[in-house]
Amino acid sequence: MLKGQLLHPGILSAIASAGHGSKVLIADGNYPHSTHRGPNASLVFLNLSPGLVSGVDALKVLTSALVIEKAEVMDYARTGPYAMNKDPEIWADYAELLKDADCKGQLNKIERFAFYDVAAAPDVCLTIATGEQRIYADLLLTIGVVK
Questions:
Q1: Domain of residue 115, CATH code
Q2: b/e map of 50-80 (b: 16 or more CB within 10 Å)?
Q3: Alpha-carbon span 14 to 112, nearest angstrom
Q4: Which candidate among 3, 121, 130, 139 keeps its CA 20 to 30 Å from the CA of 111?
Q5: If you write DSSP's letter for every residue of 108-133 in order, what string do you get?
Q6: Residue 79, pLDDT above cutoff 80
Q7: Which residue in 146, 127, 6, 5 sits closest to 67, CA to CA?
Q8: Are 126 and 25 in contact (CB under 8 A)?
Q9: Residue 2: inside a domain, yes or no?
Q10: Distance of alpha carbon 17 from alpha carbon 42, whole angstroms
Q11: Mind listing the pLDDT tens digit for each residue in 61-71?
Protein backbone atom coordinates (compact mmCIF):
# COMPACT_ATOMS: atom_id res chain seq x y z
CA MET A 1 0.00 0.00 0.00
CA LEU A 2 1.14 3.52 -0.75
CA LYS A 3 1.71 5.92 2.14
CA GLY A 4 1.91 9.19 0.24
CA GLN A 5 -0.80 11.69 -0.59
CA LEU A 6 -1.01 10.65 -4.24
CA LEU A 7 -2.84 7.37 -4.76
CA HIS A 8 -4.48 7.75 -8.20
CA PRO A 9 -3.03 5.04 -10.48
CA GLY A 10 -3.44 7.00 -13.72
CA ILE A 11 -1.72 10.08 -12.34
CA LEU A 12 1.05 8.03 -10.74
CA SER A 13 1.68 6.20 -14.01
CA ALA A 14 1.84 9.39 -16.06
CA ILE A 15 4.24 11.21 -13.76
CA ALA A 16 6.37 8.11 -13.16
CA SER A 17 7.06 7.91 -16.88
CA ALA A 18 7.73 11.65 -17.18
CA GLY A 19 10.97 13.45 -16.51
CA HIS A 20 12.57 16.83 -15.99
CA GLY A 21 10.86 19.39 -18.19
CA SER A 22 7.70 17.36 -18.70
CA LYS A 23 4.50 19.24 -17.96
CA VAL A 24 1.25 18.53 -16.12
CA LEU A 25 -1.92 20.49 -16.82
CA ILE A 26 -4.53 20.97 -14.13
CA ALA A 27 -7.57 21.93 -16.23
CA ASP A 28 -10.59 23.72 -14.83
CA GLY A 29 -14.18 22.67 -15.58
CA ASN A 30 -14.36 24.90 -18.66
CA TYR A 31 -11.13 23.76 -20.32
CA PRO A 32 -11.50 21.83 -23.60
CA HIS A 33 -9.31 18.99 -22.33
CA SER A 34 -10.32 16.47 -24.98
CA THR A 35 -9.49 18.76 -27.91
CA HIS A 36 -6.58 20.79 -26.50
CA ARG A 37 -4.25 18.27 -24.95
CA GLY A 38 -0.81 17.14 -25.93
CA PRO A 39 -0.36 14.07 -28.13
CA ASN A 40 1.60 12.37 -25.32
CA ALA A 41 -0.68 13.46 -22.48
CA SER A 42 -2.68 10.96 -20.51
CA LEU A 43 -6.12 12.32 -19.67
CA VAL A 44 -7.38 11.73 -16.15
CA PHE A 45 -10.94 12.68 -15.25
CA LEU A 46 -11.35 14.02 -11.71
CA ASN A 47 -14.37 16.15 -12.64
CA LEU A 48 -16.87 14.24 -10.54
CA SER A 49 -19.32 17.15 -10.36
CA PRO A 50 -19.14 20.95 -10.43
CA GLY A 51 -16.62 21.93 -7.77
CA LEU A 52 -15.41 18.37 -7.21
CA VAL A 53 -12.44 17.80 -7.46
CA SER A 54 -11.11 21.37 -7.34
CA GLY A 55 -7.93 22.62 -8.94
CA VAL A 56 -6.59 23.44 -5.49
CA ASP A 57 -7.23 19.87 -4.32
CA ALA A 58 -5.39 18.49 -7.33
CA LEU A 59 -2.44 20.84 -6.80
CA LYS A 60 -2.19 19.97 -3.09
CA VAL A 61 -1.69 16.31 -3.94
CA LEU A 62 0.67 16.97 -6.85
CA THR A 63 2.94 19.15 -4.72
CA SER A 64 3.41 16.18 -2.39
CA ALA A 65 4.73 14.06 -5.26
CA LEU A 66 6.54 16.40 -7.67
CA VAL A 67 9.33 18.92 -7.77
CA ILE A 68 7.71 21.89 -9.51
CA GLU A 69 10.15 24.05 -11.41
CA LYS A 70 7.71 26.38 -13.14
CA ALA A 71 4.00 27.23 -12.97
CA GLU A 72 2.01 28.91 -15.74
CA VAL A 73 -1.56 30.18 -15.85
CA MET A 74 -3.89 31.24 -18.64
CA ASP A 75 -3.92 35.03 -18.57
CA TYR A 76 -7.34 36.60 -18.24
CA ALA A 77 -9.08 38.82 -20.78
CA ARG A 78 -9.14 42.55 -20.14
CA THR A 79 -12.09 43.11 -22.50
CA GLY A 80 -15.05 41.06 -23.70
CA PRO A 81 -17.51 38.76 -21.95
CA TYR A 82 -14.90 37.07 -19.70
CA ALA A 83 -12.97 40.22 -18.84
CA MET A 84 -11.58 40.76 -15.37
CA ASN A 85 -9.90 43.78 -13.84
CA LYS A 86 -7.73 41.88 -11.34
CA ASP A 87 -6.04 38.53 -11.00
CA PRO A 88 -8.41 35.61 -10.38
CA GLU A 89 -8.58 34.69 -6.68
CA ILE A 90 -7.56 31.10 -7.37
CA TRP A 91 -4.13 32.34 -8.46
CA ALA A 92 -3.41 33.39 -4.87
CA ASP A 93 -4.45 29.91 -3.71
CA TYR A 94 -2.11 28.31 -6.25
CA ALA A 95 0.76 30.67 -5.38
CA GLU A 96 0.36 29.88 -1.68
CA LEU A 97 0.54 26.13 -2.33
CA LEU A 98 3.59 26.63 -4.54
CA LYS A 99 5.52 29.00 -2.26
CA ASP A 100 7.88 26.22 -1.13
CA ALA A 101 8.30 24.78 -4.64
CA ASP A 102 11.28 25.57 -6.85
CA CYS A 103 9.11 28.15 -8.66
CA LYS A 104 8.66 30.01 -5.30
CA GLY A 105 4.96 30.54 -5.98
CA GLN A 106 5.55 32.60 -9.12
CA LEU A 107 2.81 32.13 -11.72
CA ASN A 108 3.83 33.04 -15.26
CA LYS A 109 0.96 34.36 -17.37
CA ILE A 110 0.39 33.09 -20.91
CA GLU A 111 -2.16 34.67 -23.26
CA ARG A 112 -5.26 32.46 -23.63
CA PHE A 113 -4.75 31.09 -27.15
CA ALA A 114 -1.00 30.73 -26.64
CA PHE A 115 -1.80 28.80 -23.45
CA TYR A 116 -3.91 26.34 -25.45
CA ASP A 117 -0.94 25.79 -27.77
CA VAL A 118 1.52 25.27 -24.91
CA ALA A 119 -0.89 22.92 -23.11
CA ALA A 120 -1.26 20.86 -26.30
CA ALA A 121 2.48 20.46 -26.87
CA PRO A 122 4.26 17.08 -26.92
CA ASP A 123 6.03 17.75 -23.59
CA VAL A 124 2.73 17.66 -21.65
CA CYS A 125 2.57 14.21 -20.09
CA LEU A 126 -0.70 14.55 -18.19
CA THR A 127 -3.93 16.53 -18.34
CA ILE A 128 -6.10 16.39 -15.24
CA ALA A 129 -9.73 17.39 -15.85
CA THR A 130 -11.06 18.83 -12.59
CA GLY A 131 -14.47 20.08 -11.56
CA GLU A 132 -13.00 23.51 -10.72
CA GLN A 133 -15.65 26.16 -11.45
CA ARG A 134 -13.62 29.32 -11.01
CA ILE A 135 -12.57 30.79 -14.35
CA TYR A 136 -8.93 31.12 -15.39
CA ALA A 137 -8.06 28.27 -13.04
CA ASP A 138 -5.98 26.31 -15.56
CA LEU A 139 -2.47 25.63 -14.26
CA LEU A 140 0.45 24.19 -16.21
CA LEU A 141 3.26 22.76 -14.08
CA THR A 142 6.78 21.96 -15.26
CA ILE A 143 8.40 19.05 -13.48
CA GLY A 144 11.77 19.85 -11.96
CA VAL A 145 14.75 17.82 -10.80
CA VAL A 146 15.03 15.95 -7.50
CA LYS A 147 18.15 17.39 -5.90
A1: 3.40.1650.10
A2: eeebbbbbbbebbbeebbbbbbbbbbbeeee
A3: 25
A4: 130
A5: EEE-HHHHHHHHTSTTEEEEEE----
A6: yes
A7: 146
A8: yes
A9: no
A10: 11
A11: 999 999 999 99
